[in-house]
Design a protein that fits this description.
The protein is of the alpha+beta class and 289 residues long. It has helices at residues 3-8, 55-67, 94-97, 100-120, 130-143, 152-166, 203-213, 218-229, 235-262, 269-286; strands spanning 18-22, 29-35, 38-44, 74-78, 81-85, 90-91, 172-174, 183-185, 190-192, 199-201. The protein has two domains: 3-85, 2-Layer Sandwich (Phosphorylase Kinase, domain 1), CATH 3.30.200; 90-286, Alpha-Beta Complex (Aminoglycoside 3'-phosphotransferase, Chain: A, domain 2), CATH 3.90.1200. The strands form three sheets. The protein has a five-stranded antiparallel sheet. The chain has a three-stranded antiparallel sheet with strand order 6-8-9, covered by helices on one side. The longest helix has 28 residues, at 235-262. The chain starts with a helix and ends with a helix.
Length: 289
């Protein structure tokens, strides 16, 4: 059955629908569906155990994020299918997030994610612990005979050092995928979407991911942390943050290595691996400076 056939067969439409693909998804396939005057977003994707993605957790997080006022409403769901209300908005870019004014608007949204969604979440919740994810990714890659295997012994040592350096840890409900495209601007407010990796984590993982994914300058990183915590930045927080930022880059690199083997989505994962490897190595070398 084609994706279009699956969408037509959902049985929730008022009549003939127009379906168009939304580009950019790298863990699922997204479609804009016009149903008369209504527009919906349909996300197609099954569980991805190698990436710790559970669609039931994504559904629960999506509902909680809507209840907290951060994300569009869930209209319908079925195994492998999530239908969301359409938000007429523009996805942000890394350039947008490097703008001080935009970042000032983003930080309250991230803080609300960390503090408000847990109050609305129902059912068993996932823990997204980046250092466990790193170790599990390396085990998955070794079992698959990955050509990157010569790197893994050193990466495990670095991961242990980062885990020690990043503590002690706060716990909050994290989004855990702070890509620019997951922030939408409708001209009046911002939205946060795509809850594939949502789960309890330390806030510094989201903050480190926000900075690393969007290539913030050090001045922007310091401003981000002071805006988030609403107090002057201390040397201890800066140390813990830089370690967690490195961990977020390490996880992104390993995520891409695993995707090179397991993903069926048309995306240049090898180039993404190389990009994130270079960024991780640079950040790791700089973190103790």
């Amino acid at each position: 059955m084609t994706p279009e056939d699956r969408i037509h067969a959902l049985g929730i439409w008022n009549g003939p629908v127009d379906i168009s693909a939304i580009t950019g998804g790298i863990t699922n396939r997204n479609y804009l569906v016009r149903d008369g005057a209504l527009k919906r977003v349909v996300r197609l994707g099954d569980d991805i155990p190698v990436h710790h993605i559970s669609r039931s957790n994504e559904l629960a997080a999506s509902k909680a994020a809507h209840a907290a006022g951060l994300s569009p409403a869930v209209i319908h769901h079925a195994p492998g299918v999530l239908v969301l209300d359409y938000i007429d908005a523009r996805a942000l870019t890394p350039e947008d997030l490097r703008d001080a004014g935009t970042l000032e608007r983003v930080i309250p949204l991230v803080r609300a994610c960390h503090h408000d969604i847990a109050r609305e979440f129902r059912g068993a919740a996932t823990i997204f612990w980046v250092f466990h994810v790193v170790r599990d990714y390396i085990a998955t890659l070794e079992a698959a005979g990955s050509p990157y295997s010569p790197l893994f012994f050193d990466l495990l040592i670095k991961a242990e050092r980062l885990e020690q350096a990043a503590g002690p840890f706060e716990i909050a409900f994290g989004h855990n995928d702070m890509l620019a495209a997951n922030f939408l601007d409708d001209g009046k407010r911002l939205w946060l979407i795509d809850w594939d990796y949502a789960g309890f984590n330390t806030p510094l993982f989201d903050l480190g991911g926000l900075a690393s994914n969007n290539e913030f300058s050090e001045d922007a990183e310091r401003a981000m942390l002071e805006a988030y915590y609403q107090k002057p930045l201390t040397p201890d927080l800066w140390r813990r943050y830089r370690a967690m930022k490195c961990a977020s880059l390490l996880r992104e690199m390993l995520w891409s290595m695993v995707s090179e083997i397991h993903s069926t989505i048309d995306f240049d994962y090898a180039a993404y691996t190389a990009e994130n490897r270079a960024r991780f190595e640079r950040a790791y070398a700089e973190q103790d400076q």
